[in-house]
Amino acid sequence: MEVAIISPTEGKRSSKIYDAARTRGIILDAAEKIFAELGYSAARIDVIAKESRYNKSLIYQYFGDKLGLYTEVVKRADQIGEQITGSFIAGLLKNEQLVTDPAAFREFLEVMTRETVSFLLEHRSYLRILFWEAAEDWKTWNQITYRPDDATQMHDLALAAQKNGILRQDLDPALFPILIMNVTTATLQSSSRFEQLLGKLDSPQMREQTTQQIAKFIIHGVMEPSLL
Questions:
Q1: pLDDT higher at 138 or 9
Q2: Domains of the chain, start order
């Protein structure tokens, strides 16, 4: 049996790569927390540096500037979401009957809603970042170079579903992804405001009930009524 021998140079190189990745992760965790708490405009690099326990110069070295750091926070959150929900949604999108079979389209909306709610509740800081962006008219979001293609994919899906009579004819397909995102995020973000009526989303029962209600609202809002 051969035994691989790692030279001291290779060991040091691997250690440096690992340390760099770990350092980036710690900085991104700190940045995500501060951006979620204060929004992009009010967040400061020195505050993020203090939270991460790394100096500002290292942050600039890794990310260039505050916008570069913010871009990486958004990018990482989207990639995490893709890892968690992407396999489920991608599998459903491959179904050739998705835009021709009302039952398949309804199942897609239900699964997508469930996975989206689950992701946002597990990553509440990202949800808060979205609402900070909305409050600031998406000015920073529209400056970042990273652009997930989810909206384009959903728009194309809506066009095909409407052509086949599954999506309601009086709905603009361009609004399909926007309405779904806003119904989901606004409901979750507002839940604490109405805890006396709804209860806390930390409860598995309340979480399931809210997910079902969001899914039903979306389904009945976008699908052709005669199919329901």
A1: 138
A2: 75-227 (1.10.357.10)
